[in-house]
Amino acid sequence: MTERKPPGMSFETWVDRQITQAQERGDFAALSGAGRPLRNLDREETAYDWALAKARREGVDTAAMLPPGLRLRRERDDLPERADRLATEAEVRALAEDFNARVEAFWRLPAESRWAPVPGLADVEALVAGWLATRPPPAQVAPPPDPSPAHRRRWFRRRA
């Protein structure tokens, strides 16, 4: 915008005049995407859709945009994946118990509305059982060699 709208001229006329002048100067000639249709003109985009697309383009975690109750529900659904990355059963139990403590703290807060989602507790034992099911079986330990007299005799003969 290079100049102010002259008094007495309608806004539409003033904008149309600026577009016409820019076309005459060739400002629109070498734009990327020239001659191609605009994307997503056929659907109506809400403010939520725009914010979600912007957050994804910027690399922001979209779970942070959720209300607290939904965020906790999503976290509960992701617990098995997070548990798979842990090394011990104690760590898996600590993960589930930490989640349950945060859910119980959420329950103590006043409700945002009557329709606010209320997350449930994670089943610690089911989470541990699922984690154990994905672990390889423990390695079989070979029994120690039999210290029988025959074994000792062979050793003695080799030495002699």
What is the strand and helix layout of this fold?
Layout: H1 11-25, H2 47-58, H3 68-84, H4 89-108, H5 124-134, H6 149-159
Helix pairs in contact: 3-4, 3-5, 4-5
Number of contiguous helices = 6
Order of helix and strand elements from N to C terminus: HHHHHH
Main sheet attributes: strand count, strand direction, barrel closure: none
Structural class: mainly alpha
First and last CA, distance: 105 Å
Helix content: 40-55%
Strand content is under 5%
Q: Overall mean pLDDT score? A: 84
Describe the structure.
The protein is mainly α and 160 residues long. The protein has six helices and no strands. α3 runs parallel beside α5.
Gist of the model:
Helix content is 54%, strand content 0%. The chain has 160 residues and is mostly helical.
Keywords:
elongated; single chain; mainly alpha; 160 residues
